[in-house]
Design a protein that fits this description.
Elements: H1 10-29, H2 42-49, H3 60-71, E1 83-84, H4 93-105, H5 116-133, E2 140-144, H6 147-165, H7 170-173, E3 183-188, H8 193-201, E4 209-212, H9 222-234, E5 238-245, H10 257-267, E6 270-275, E7 299-302, H11 304-307, E8 315-319, H12 324-329, H13 363-398, E9 402-405, E10 412-417, H14 429-449, E11 453-459, E12 462-468, H15 476-503
Parallel strand pairs: 1-11, 3-4, 3-5, 5-6, 6-7
Antiparallel strand pairs: 2-8, 7-8, 9-10, 10-12, 11-12
The structure holds pyridoxal-5'-phosphate.
Length: 504
């Protein structure tokens, strides 16, 4: 029998499509009863999934059943209402459907003429997102796969501009021009590792990422930035950019943008604002007016995939210096050039703004999610996260043995269990190390329970359990359950450690 050589017949698609929707339905209907994480063994998982390449096409029922039985139970469930690790990257249902539609249309949004309505819609949602986070809506911008590439591209544009101002054409000569001064990037000691990764990708080098000290609240100290810039400029280095963070990864701190921007202006240095996490929280009514103004940035990255209930991947990069991204990345080979030259109003292909050529239709899911919930609906959901985090902060403050350290305005808590001895709190480095181990043990046990998932960081106060709130499905009961789990696990782990303490 010869193999079939076409796509599924549409009636098969209809039948399987209904089965897929049913599976998605069951996944969301049962998610609260599902363990957030399990004890996943990497080797076993790969061994179990590693079969030979199927020689002949298989029945879809079997493929879907394997997905249901072998894949879904072995996932860490980012959509789970008690997933509190990292950042609350969760998919809303309109976003889930939009991803399906996007895959069906399979448009390549590289050029205006390869994707007319997709490019137009990207322009529209970029305006909406800019308005939601308070950036000039007419800034250049594009949708990307993550904040990391966004910061990489912003720093490439900043590098181009900075060296151009000193008479060096990096676009043509790269970093090989004779006499090119050493370029440096400035960011706080709390900035995300994507800044370092950009520096190593761009040939700036990790040694030229200057980590400006942060203050007691983990915010960049503008006077320390001023000192570093003054010192380096006097020594002949070339500041390429400053990266400020609104919502740091460890603690949710926000750098004082106005003061940082003033320092940047004084030295003519590009300011890139990384608001991947914090960017949309100005929407929450209780935070309005209490947050940093991201509009002072020459460029800005925000992550709808983190806080706007849009499925991965969905990041927006903006640049208010007109043409800076295109000056860095525009390069049109003959096979992509328009047959008859550009007509009026035809400039502005998204391929001109980054190194990426082929690019998906990311705008549709943003359009569906923003339209489905509306500005007020998004605001209400962000406000709920802020309120749930406030509830948890209050519970923590009322407990004698738990501390909420490095307070943030965002729904991100850094918790530390510091029970009185034995097990215990104390001033010595050894005592603190013991508390670090206790908190790490609490985190491990909480995550092993499958009841909730949290992640950690190590800050000046020591090892902290990070609780990030913001999943669209999280309720008051979920947060209360998390708190019960944390406190009960804390007492149990403390009991388990106590003999060691007494012996020591
Ligand atoms: C999450 C985050 C990043 C990295 O985002 P990706 O989209 O995963 O690349 C960078 N900076 C900050 C402040 C973040 O919160």
């Amino acid at each position: 029998m010869p193999e079939a050589d076409g796509d599924w017949p549409l009636p098969d698609f209809d039948r399987h499509g209904r089965d897929v929707l049913d599976t998605i339905h069951d996944y969301f209907a049962g998610i609260r009863q599902t363990p957030v994480a399990g004890p996943h063994d990497r080797r076993q998982l790969v061994d179990r999934l590693l079969t030979g390449i199927p020689e002949h096409g298989q029945e879809f029922d079997g493929i879907l059943a394997d997905t249901r039985d072998k894949i879904i139970p072995e996932l860490l469930h980012w959509n789970h209402p008690r997933f509190h690790g990292y950042f609350p990257t969760c998919a809303s249902l309109p976003g889930v459907l939009a991803e399906t539609m996007t895959a069906a249309l399979n448009v390549n949004a590289m050029l205006w003429r390869t994707s007319p309505a997709a490019s137009a819609l990207e322009t529209v949602v970029l305006r909406w997102l800019a308005e939601l986070c308070g950036y000039p809506p007419d800034a250049d911008g594009l949708l990307l796969a993550g904040a990391s590439p966004a910061t990489l591209y912003a720093l490439a544009a900043a590098r181009e501009e900075s060296y151009a101002a000193a008479g060096h054409d990096v676009r043509t000569h790269g970093l090989n021009a004779p006499g090119l001064p050493v370029g440096r990037v400035y960011t706080s000691d709390q900035a995300h590792s994507s800044v370092d990764k950009a520096a190593l990708t761009l040939g700036i080098g990790l040694a030229n990422v200057v980590r400006v000290p942060s203050d007691a609240h983990y915010r960049m100290r503008p006077e320390a930035l001023e000192e570093a810039l003054t010192r380096d400029i006097a020594a002949g280095a070339r500041p390429l950019a400053v990266v400020a963070t609104v919502g740091t990864t460890s603690t949710g701190a926000a750098d004082p943008l106005r003061a940082v921007a003033a320092v940047c202006r004084r030295h003519g240095v590009w300011l890139h604002v990384d608001a991947a996490y914090g960017g949309f929280y100005p929407l929450a009514p209780s935070l309005a007016g209490r947050l940093e103004d991201v509009a002072v940035g020459d460029s800005l990255v925000v992550n709808p995939q983190k806080t706007l209930f849009v499925p991965l991947d969905s990041t927006a990069l903006y640049c208010r210096r007109p043409g800076a991204l295109a000056n860095t990345f525009r390069l049109v080979p003959e096979y992509l050039a328009p047959a008859h030259g550009l007509g009026p109003g035809e400039e502005g292909d998204f391929m001109d703004l980054s190194p990426q050529l082929g690019r998906g239709f990311r705008a549709l899911k943003l359009w569906w999610v923003i339209r489905s919930f509306g500005r007020r609906g998004l605001a209400a959901r962000l406000e709920k996260a802020v309120r749930l985090a406030e509830d948890l902060r209050r519970r923590v403050r009322e407990h004698p043995d738990w501390r909420c350290v490095a307070d943030s305005v965002y729904p991100l808590l850094c918790l530390r269990y510091e029970p009185a001895p034995p097990g215990g709190a104390g001033g010595t480095a050894e005592d603190r190390a013991r508390l670090d181990r206790l908190n790490a043990a609490v985190l491990e046990a909480v995550n092993a329970s499958g009841e909730a998932f949290v992640s950690h960081s190590v800050i000046r106060e020591g090892y902290v359990i990070r609780v990030s709130i913001g999943n669209i499905r999280t309720t008051e009961e979920d947060v209360a359950a998390l708190w019960r789990l944390l406190t009960e696990t804390g007492e149990r782990e403390r009991g388990a450690m106590a003999p060691v303490v007494r012996a020591g």
